Amino acid sequence: MLCERCGKNEAVTRIQHLHSDGSLEEVYLCESCANLEEENKIQAFNELALSFLSMLDGNKVVAGETSGKKQLVCDSCGLDFDTFRKTNRAGCSDCYDAFYEQILQAAKQVQGGHAKHVGKVPAAFVAESEREERIFALREQIQKMIELENFEEAARLRDEIRSLEGKAGEEE
Ligand SMILES: [Zn+2]
Ligand SMILES: [Zn+2]
């Protein structure tokens, strides 16, 4: 069969995308489209890692950077986690296997809202807690998407959290 992306070359590999709604998408790709897919995935991972790790900055140090702890290194390309944090460039597709625990840690630590507000009127308070619940659910989904290596979906969910946070700002 032909590649479902370019429709020109013979498909040689099957790629699965699991979406946050649980639906599974399968595409058959040729080698060059599969490589492109892999590249996009690394980029999505880089972008996601950057946003989560930058949210943590000034807050908490991600495990791996603390002195005395064993340095995390990607077995395939030799990139270490500190360098990855600084440059925010994964060296190869195995890097996210090596570092995703750290990204997951970062994602877990990212708080949905800012400091708790006090002195809200009841209606606003209800809205606030609903939003917090929603953000909590989104965070859980993000973790799942990272585990499934669906970084694009994780980034989309992260943007949803950001827009919820934006609404919090408007209410003030
Ligand atoms: Zn193709
Ligand atoms: Zn690597």
Largest sheet: 2 strands, antiparallel
Given as residue ranges, the uncertain stretches (5+ residues, pLDDT < 50) are 58-68, 112-117
- What is the 3D form? flat
Strand content: 5-15%
Overall mean pLDDT score? 78
Number of strands: 2
The total of helices stands at 5
Helix/sheet category: mainly alpha
Ligand catalogue? zinc ion
Supply Rg. Answer: 19 Å
Indicate the percent of residues in helices. Answer: 55-70%
Order of helix and strand elements from N to C terminus: EEHHHHH
Report, as a whole number of angstroms, the end-to-end distance.
Answer: 57 Å
Q: What topology, given as strand order, has the largest sheet?
A: 1-2
Task: Explain what you see.
- The protein has 172 residues and is mainly alpha-helical.
- The protein has one domain (13-171).
- Helices cover 55% and strands 7% of the residues.
- The protein has helices spanning 31-56, 81-87, 95-109, 122-147, 151-171; strands spanning 13-18, 24-29.
- It has a two-stranded antiparallel ribbon with strand order 1-2.
- Helix 1 runs parallel beside helix 5.
- One zinc ion binds at residues 74, 76-77, 79, 91-92, 94-95.
- One zinc ion binds next to loops.
In short:
By secondary structure, the chain is mostly helical. It contains five helices and two strands; from the N terminus they run ββααααα. α1 (31-56) packs parallel to α3 and α4 packs antiparallel against α5.
